[in-house]
Design brief:
alpha/beta, 3-stranded antiparallel beta sheet, binds S-adenosylmethionine
């Protein structure tokens, strides 16, 4: 199915970026990106969420999820420049935004300055998750695992820590599957059969069962509530254990597109992520 509702075209997206004339740091590569009437300082890397339709859809979905209830604690362990953490801060008592890269972290901290319920941490997220588990910290109600590649180690740590809650999860390995790139074959040696538009089948037949298998290993039940696929990233919304999204939220999610960019234009016969 071809849906047009996938955000802005790239020309319009670039028009939202304003180079900061006063910028001296990071070689003058800092740009300003507008979101929700605020300016976020970003560099031109793929952590900038307006970079693709998938990033723009992520913001819309995060807005829907964020406002679905009053959350106690949201963990954003791949915080990037902080747009998702900002969205989550509107409806959560507390948000922790973890970012490993120093340059990105510096901008994250600045972008979220003055938002009192957000705490920024410059650390590797596996180290952060491990420490929280060891220290017996109360788990979050929502975690957003949003890497460039795959978050399996972080997913396992999340399942060790959280019993009930929402898990939002991105996977960027689909780009390697879609392009049949050599880099993905050490993980999935037989992956050739999912090249091109069949990459969405890889999500259905391989990746979701893999996440479910990890959950089962940890004795947790995972339910997929929504997903969408872009040639460069997959995004999944899961309920974990006793946690459930309300009907209104599920209805709202069900109206969002499931396929973005090139995937919209190819037939998806009988495709389902379930
Ligand atoms: C896709 S971007 C995140 C975008 C952000 N979630 C948003 O929606 O605005 C991924 C970010 O995670 C950071 N990152 C990657 N691996 C990490 C790790 N192990 N620990 C902490 N941060 C990590 C990267 O530096 C990058 O800024």
């Amino acid at each position: 199915m071809f849906t047009k509702d996938t955000g802005l075209r790239s020309v319009q997206r670039e028009a939202l970026l304003i180079e900061d004339p006063d910028v001296k740091e990071f070689g003058g590569r800092v740009l300003k990106e507008e979101y929700d009437g605020r300016y976020f300082r970003v560099t031109d890397n793929t952590a900038r969420s307006s970079k693709s339709d998938a990033g723009i859809e992520k913001r819309t979905i995060n807005e829907i999820i964020g406002k679905s209830r009053k959350w106690d604690f949201i963990l954003d362990p791949y915080a990037g420049f902080g747009i998702s953490a900002y969205i989550f801060s509107k409806n959560s008592e507390r948000v922790v935004a973890v970012e490993r890269d120093w340059e990105t972290y510096s901008l994250l901290k600045e972008n979220l300055m003055g938002i009192k319920n957000v705490e920024c941490v410059n650390d590797d997220n596996t180290a952060y998750l491990q420490k929280c588990i060891e220290d017996g910290v109360k788990p979050p109600n929502l975690i957003d695992l949003d890497p460039f590649g795959g978050p399996e180690a972080q997913f396992l740590l999340t399942l060790e820590w959280m019993k009930d809650g929402a898990i939002l999860c991105t996977n960027g390995q689909i780009e390697g599957v879609y392009r049949n790139s050599i880099g993905i074959k050490h993980l999935y040696p037989w992956v050739d059969k999912y090249a091109g538009h069949k990459a969405t089948k890889w999500a259905e037949k391989v990746y979701i069962p893999r996440l479910r298998g990890l959950a089962k290993e940890k004795g947790r039940e995972l339910r997929l509530v929504h997903s969408y696929a872009h040639p460069r990233s997959l995004r999944f919304i899961f309920e974990l254990g006793a946690f459930e999204f309300g009907k209104e939220t599920k209805d709202e999610l069900s109206k969002r597109p499931r396929f973005l960019d090139w995937f919209q234009r190819v037939e998806q016969p009988g495709f389902s992520f379930e």
